[in-house]
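hiii so um. not sure if this is the right channel but i have a protein structure encoded as tokens and i wanna go backwards to a sequence. like what aa goes where. can anyone help
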């Protein structure tokens, strides 16, 4: 049995990107025929590639059965690595094409869904319009996947909530305060109301996330104020697409981060039910390395910081002004 070093050097000398593509496609589709059709090569080429790979690695990668191909445990261990290899290859192709064809620099961002909605939806199109020489690659990632992208060097910075632990050599810059909000469709009887009672909220049907998700924990805390347990809609999900559909098509309420749904509220697709007390959550912002950012990344960072720091400053000034007026009137 060859050592890891021997296998590594063998792959460097004799491995090809096509081998990685075939491995992933057969694992995904479970069939040599379907993999060949998807890639655009012959079935015999797929079969020969798998045999070559198994000889190269000295392991069996797939179990053949009546209905097709099933990855072995060794193959399943290799699949995440193979996926990252093709992802890196795709990103490299994007970078080369952007520089060659348009003279563009590329900024790679990983963002949570909340940060995409709250920070980037409006900002990135505006930035790229001002800076046509910079191309932005945006991928969505949550929690540990963000940290993994940082560790692998796959991103220039991350848009997210303030993490519990900031990676060494990185800094979190808060840009946008956030809170939980009660949401409904615009024609819901409670839409736009600011004097809703706990009893009225308790009488509604709620779309909720699974237990253990932060928004569910916050909803459970809110529901503890109700005089009786609320009704829960039978589809329990953390899928943004599904939750959005439920809010638009069912007579339900949801308890979600405000900046996540802000674009939909502004577009008139959803409405907020004002409740007290409001629950603040960790702000949205940027997780950036302390050094080594490219000039293009620095420009985008500065643009986002200037855009949202001014918004935050104006919001706090407005709050202080309103508070001063109330004191004078009192």
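sure thing!! here u go:
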């Amino acid at each position: 049995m060859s050592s890891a070093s021997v296998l590594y050097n063998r792959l460097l000398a004799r491995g090809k990107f096509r081998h990685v593509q075939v491995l992933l496609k057969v694992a995904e589709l479970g069939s040599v025929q379907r993999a060949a059709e998807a890639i655009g090569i012959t079935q015999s080429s797929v079969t020969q590639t798998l045999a070559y790979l198994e000889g190269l690695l000295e392991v069996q990668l797939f179990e053949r059965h009546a209905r097709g191909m099933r990855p072995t445990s060794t193959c399943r261990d290799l699949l995440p690595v193979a996926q990252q290899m093709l992802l890196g290859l795709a990103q490299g192709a994007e970078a080369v094409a952007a520089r060659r064809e348009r003279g563009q620099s590329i900024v790679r961002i990983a963002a949570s869904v909340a940060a995409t909605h709250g920070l980037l939806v409006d900002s990135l199109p505006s930035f790229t319009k001002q800076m046509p020489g910079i191309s932005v690659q945006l991928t969505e990632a949550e929690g540990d996947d963000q940290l993994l992208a940082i560790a692998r060097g796959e991103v220039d910075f991350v848009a997210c909530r303030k993490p519990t632990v900031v990676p060494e050599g990185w800094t979190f810059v808060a840009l946008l305060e956030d809170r939980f909000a009660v949401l409904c469709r615009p024609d819901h009887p409670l839409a736009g109301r600011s004097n809703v009672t706990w009893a009225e909220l308790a009488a509604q049907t709620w779309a909720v996330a699974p237990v253990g998700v932060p928004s569910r924990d916050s909803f459970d805390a809110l529901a503890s104020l109700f005089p009786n347990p609320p009704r829960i809609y039978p589809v329990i999900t953390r899928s943004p697409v599904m939750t959005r559909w439920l809010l638009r098509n069912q007579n339900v309420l949801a308890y979600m981060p405000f900046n996540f749904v802000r674009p939909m509220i502004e577009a008139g697709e959803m409405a907020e039910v004002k409740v007290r007390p409001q629950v603040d959550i960790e702000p949205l912002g940027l997780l950036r390395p302390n050094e080594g950012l490219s000039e293009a990344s620095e420009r985008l960072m500065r643009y986002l910081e200037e855009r949202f720091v001014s918004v935050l400053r104006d919001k706090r000034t407005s709050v202080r002004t309103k508070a001063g007026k109330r004191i004078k009137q009192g």
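oh and Residues 19 and 49 are 6 Å apart (CA to CA).
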